[in-house]
Write a structure and sequence with these properties.
Strand content: 5-15%
Organism: Winogradskyella arenosi
Protein name: Threonine dehydratase
Number of domains: 2
Order of helices and strands: HEHEHHEHEHEHEHEHEHHEHHHE
Number of helices: 14
Distance between the termini: 70 Å
Number of strands: 10
InterPro entries: TrpB-like_PALP (IPR001926), TrpB-like_PALP_sf (IPR036052)
Strand order of the largest sheet: 1-2-10-7-8-9
Structural class: alpha/beta
CATH architecture of the largest domain: 3-Layer(aba) Sandwich
Helix content: 40-55%
Largest sheet: 6 strands, mixed
Cofactor: pyridoxal 5'-phosphate
Radius of gyration: 19 Å
GO molecular function: ATP binding; L-serine ammonia-lyase activity; magnesium ion binding; pyridoxal phosphate binding; serine racemase activity; threonine racemase activity
């Protein structure tokens, strides 16, 4: 029997697609003992304001307070026993530093955390509480990378990237997988965009597990590199990082950008005052603590109410690690 090249290509696509779906299922099963299945909440007031059914996947209730625990746990669980014995290293001043520290502590792995010297003390304290060993460096991307590389060389530790690593992206996808299990009729899922690890994982989950669900990103206008990257077709950088959404000051990577290009509908940019208003709305009306980066997704929906009217919209609340002594409102 003769088989055409197009039929072979289609068969290969089906096999790869099924393999990718199985990888996400295996990832979810692997990390379940080490994460929380976070709640899904809603607000009748917010629904009325937008004229849609809005549900929130609350990763601010995740272990260490953010979705980052999912990717960190999967990355460490994916290591060989020999690699685990040598430890792991990452550079982060925020949630990934805490996530790697906690996941490593839980699994009996040494964690070296490179943090800029001007990182908030509250974040350094959290890393220490979770058992991470902090190595301080100058507050530049170059210094972070150079310090992490030196530790990798000296200790033989495995480097874990906060967003641009497939194991981290697969781990992140499990938030959306859980979301879709509970809310199978979602028509849109929206996530904040910083380094791209969450939205890439969400897009993969929607592609493999949703009936017909678009994925949209939300980003501060002040750091709109992902928005510009989708338009230009290559990874853009920011020259300024002046946004209240401190967790979104990073840029996309070569591992997550192709996924975003293929599976993300678009990215909506919002202003600083819109982020603060959305954050305050969640605190006051939903009675939950969210960080500014998490509020960016709701800010995008509030800004474009007509676009989401009468739809089932899912928002992933990325985290709740905020210094309550220094709120923007």
């Amino acid at each position: 029997m003769n088989v055409s090249s197009s039929e072979i290509a289609f068969l290969q696509f089906c096999i790869e697609n099924n393999m990718n779906k199985q990888t996400l299922i295996q990832t979810h099963n692997r990390i379940k003992p080490f994460i929380h299945k976070t709640p899904v909440l809603s607000s009748s007031l917010i629904n009325k304001m937008i004229g849609a059914t809005i549900v929130f996947k609350c990763e601010n209730f995740q272990k260490m307070g953010a979705f980052k625990m999912r990717g960190a746990a999967n990355a460490i669980l994916s290591l060989s026993e020999e690699e685990r014995q040598r430890g792991v290293v990452t550079h982060s001043s925020g949630n990934f530093a805490q996530a790697v520290s906690l996941a490593a502590q839980t699994l009996g792995v040494k964690a070296y955390i490179v943090m800029p010297e001007n990182a908030p003390q509250v974040k350094k304290n959290a890393v220490k509480t979770y058992g991470g060993e902090i190595i301080e460096c100058e507050a530049t991307p170059q210094a972070r990378e150079a310090t992490a590389n030196q530790i990798k060389e000296d200790k033989g530790a495995t480097f874990l990237h906060p967003s641009n690593q497939k194991e981290v992206i697969y781990g992140n996808s499990t938030a959306a997988i859980e979301f879709l299990e509970e809310q199978p009729n979602l028509e849109v899922m929206i996530t904040p965009v910083g380094g791209g690890g969450l939205i890439a994982g969400t897009a993969l989950a929607a592609h493999h597990f949703a009936k017909n669900c678009k994925v949209i990103g939300a980003e501060p206008k002040a750091v709109d590199d992902a928005y510009r990257s989708l338009i230009s077709g290559h990874i853009e950088m920011n020259s300024s990082f002046n946004t209240v959404a401190d967790g979104l000051r990073t840029h996309l990577g070569d591992c997550n950008f192709p996924i975003i290009q293929k599976h993300v509908e678009k990215i909506i940019c919002v202003e600083e005052d819109e982020i603060i208003t959305a954050m305050q709305l969640i605190w006051e009306r939903m009675k939950i603590i969210v960080e500014p980066s998490s509020a960016v997704a709701l800010a995008a929906v509030l800004k474009h109410k007509e676009e989401f009217k009468n739809q089932n919209v899912g928002i992933i609340v990325s985290g709740g690690n905020v210094d309550v002594r220094n709120l923007p409102f």
